[in-house]
Amino acid sequence: MKRMNVLLRADASKSQGAGHVMRCMTLAEGLVARGHKVTLMGAVSEAPWLQDAIAATGIHHIDCDSDELDTHQLAESRFDWIVVDSYRIPAAQISSLNASKPCLAIVDGSTRGIQASWKPICANPGRSVEASTCFA
Q1: Are 41 and 54 in contact (CB under 8 A)?
Q2: Most CB within 10 Å of its CB: which of 24, 37, 47, 93?
Q3: How many domains does the chain contain in total?
Q4: CATH number at residue 76
């Protein structure tokens, strides 16, 4: 099996987003257990307890501006896959990045027109949403 280099992108503040980062950390732990290299990129400075949780996993963390993707920098990066777990990062940025790097977009309800290599998945399967909205 090829060892992949995966970037997970999620933000959290004092009032929201912790679930996005926690989902990414769970995914990261599974990927690392299978021998893949994982980096978590996100703005989490407003949630010190979350910074501590990330540090405890040993997963490399890169701080960045909230709700943005530097599509040019990431297009030139060495990441094999990029997972975006955000409802605020513009769909156009995710779709643009997907043109040069395979992306998985995690959404809740509406795909917002995101074009991704892996079809966007519903992060909240209990929500009343037509399957075609998430798995089109």
Answers
A1: no
A2: 24
A3: 1
A4: 3.40.50.11190
pLDDT means per 10 residues, the chain with 136 residues, are 94 88 93 96 93 92 94 96 92 95 84 78 54 38
Q: Quick one: CA torsion of 84, 87, 93, 96, rounded to 10 degrees?
A: 60
Q: Single out the residue of 1, 8, 76 nearest to residue 44, CA to CA.
A: 8
- Residue 77: which domain range? 5-134
In order of 42, 57, 100, the CA distances from 80 in angstroms are 18, 21, 10
pTM for the whole thing?
0.85
